[in-house]
Amino acid sequence: MGQLLSFTDKGIFCEQGDFYIDPWRPVKNAIITHGHSDHSRLGHTNYLTHTDSTPILKHRLGTISVEGIKYRESFFKNGVKVSLHPAGHILGSAQVRVEHKGEVWVASGDYKTGPDPVAEAFEPVKCHTFITECTFGLPVFRWPAEKSVIEEVESWWRSNIQQNKVSLLCAYALGKAQRVLSLIDPTIGPIYVHGAVHSINAIHRDGGFLEEDFPYLSNSIDKESLRDALIVAPPSAAGSTWANKLKPLSVAMASGWMLLRGSKRRRNVDRGFILSDHADWDGLNAAIKETGAENIICTHGYTDQYAEWLRYIGYNAYTEKTLFEGESIDENVAKE
């Protein structure tokens, strides 16, 4: 079977359709799976993405030529049939289905098979070849139930209130922050957000995906207003001068990497909560099985280990290099 999609120095390329998927260097035609910065970059002539991602791309990239389409809405590009399908990663995240002369490939982008109040659930798409992320492609990565994790966050917050500490929860400004804010009990105390989170929240509210308008923490808010408060901020806030002004406080991180021993120390936080916007080991395996694909291409993450596992259980699996980061174990900046 031919290479309907190939990996080039600019990104994932469909030669017949003359377009790229999540290119990392400037191209004429770019199909973007979602709004995180490692997948949506500045410099392309034409952008196409899911409707819910268009305001995110405009917010992040400024004045660009971008077209939005709905999930499962197909179009033809030089005889290639293209459609977007829910990836469950963040708002507007999509898998890209590409079909030509009966051959079907799907590029997953980043995806999550677990629940999320602000992202449409992952939808398996039948194909011959599946390009999958494997950020957490090791058996050790198995996520606890979302409800139990949120209960842990709420218990930590209540404990900090009793100790007269501010609660600072670090989570990606785009995606994870809105997920947490949609699930947390707002009656425990006041909730504030970092300015980077606030601007992304506005996009979610405008689209009807977030109900409350959580105030952002500006310089004009005095310390007394922060009594009993939970503040949601990007990962870059941990250990920052901005955060130090909030003391006394307890700092926590929401990330899949919190499952690993030593991750809290590495990120300079007091608590870690295992909450990821990527599929875990079981999610990856289930998603791949449901595609019915025989050929699996593994990108960003534990690619070599996961491809070896897939070959062991009977798939034609191999790896390809990309500039996608997944959920980096060294999160030093907010992913927006």
Counting DSSP H or I runs of 4 or more residues, the number of helices is 8
**What would the average pLDDT be, to the nearest integer?**
94
Indicate the low-confidence ranges by residue numbers.
Answer: 330-334
What is the general shape?
Answer: globular
Structural class: alpha/beta
Give the spatial strand order of the biggest sheet: 7-8-9-10-11-17-18
Order of helices and strands: EEEEEHEEEEEEHEHEHEHEHEHEHE
Looking at the overall shape, the CATH architecture of the largest domain is 4-Layer Sandwich
Separation of termini?
37 Å
Question: Which secondary structure elements does this structure contain, and how are they paired or packed?
Answer:
Blueprint: E1 6-7, E2 12-14, E3 19-21, E4 29-31, E5 46-50, H1 54-61, E6 66-69, E7 75-77, E8 80-86, E9 94-100, E10 103-107, E11 129-134, H2 146-162, E12 166-170, H3 176-183, E13 191-193, H4 195-206, E14 230-233, H5 241-244, E15 249-254, H6 263-266, E16 271-273, H7 281-291, E17 295-301, H8 303-312, E18 316-319
Parallel strand pairs: 3-4, 4-5, 5-6, 10-11, 11-17, 12-14, 12-15, 13-14, 15-16, 17-18
Antiparallel strand pairs: 1-2, 2-3, 7-8, 8-9, 9-10
